[in-house]
Amino acid sequence: MNILITGASGPLGRYFITECLQIFPQAKILALSKTTLITEDTRVEYLHHNLKQDRFLRTEAFDFVIHTASIVPNKAEEDSDFISINCVGSLRLFQEITFNKSAAILNMSSTSVYHDPDAAILTENSKKTTNDLYGISKLQFESMLAEEFRGRNINILTCRIPVLLVKNVQNNFLAGWVLNVVKNKKIKLFNPDDLFNACVNEKDILKFFLSFHRRFKSKNLICNLSSSNPISITALAHQVMESLGKQTGVHEVESTEVAQLVSHKLAVEHGFKPQSVKDSIKSFIE
Predict the structure, then answer these.
(1) For 115-150, b where at least 16 C-beta lie within 10 A, e where not — what string?
(2) Tens digit of pLDDT for each residue in 176-203?
């Protein structure tokens, strides 16, 4: 089995490499990243690849392609990067990859594709953003990927992720909370009484992808992922502190925007089995 993983030096890419090697011990993994990935496992080959400019010239065929690479808002040097990297460069890569028969693609997208401030729950049919350049680029690539592989015997699972819970992730508010508690600082809370489920554990993502690949053939699914059993924002903060063994306290701040739940109904219909919010937090921290 040949597996290609983009964004391989990032927290999610590294997780997928480790887990795929455990699940498929005979697999060979080609790890693409524009920053150096150090690994001593001979089953993993690192290949420098910059989505903005590099061509993919390998000739082997791949069974799984896991696409985690993208330019995010705090890393973009200019606005045009969102389209040139997340859309044009990513599509060029997929056009140059050779796929084995019945291959599968896992494409990591984002709930940044939505802007529906009046909705209490975000579903796949919620209003899409027209001003978030990152969200627009992720939404456009979802369509580009579907069109590129239309009619081919390849499964595509696109997961729209809210807050990602993976070891060493840094660019979300829950990671910021953890850092504050470690530094003995209070957690800043908006909408303390609102319910929250907009997070997902990396283990749940990979399990869903493998299950989806087994159950469906030549299917393109775009869906939201989130945790089950929502809890209040206040309870979420106390769960973080409890998991870290510190009670640093909270600081409540008024906000005019409500916290939105993220529906994972469509994903569950296709085999997704989410952990509860509490269990997702515990797994993330411990």
Answers:
(1) beeebeebbeebeebeebbbbbbbbbbbebbeeebe
(2) 999 999 999 999 998 899 999 999 999 9
DSSP assignment of 17-44 equals: HHHHHHH-TT-EEEEEESS------TTE
Same-domain pairing of 147 and 10? yes
Report the candidate in 158, 134, 47 with the shortest Cα–Cα distance to residue 84.
Answer: 134
Q: Among 177, 201, 181, which Cα is nearest to 282's?
A: 201
Give the span between the Cα atoms of 233 and 193, in whole angstroms.
6
- For residue 256, the SS3 value is coil
- Tens digit of each residue's pLDDT (9 = 90 or more) over 248-263: 999 888 777 788 999 9
My answer on whether 32 and 133 are in the same domain is yes
The 3-state DSSP class for residue 148 equals: helix
CATH code, domain with 271: 3.90.25.10
Nearest alpha carbon to residue 195 among 234, 228, 232, 227: 232
- Residues 121, 258, single domain; the answer is no
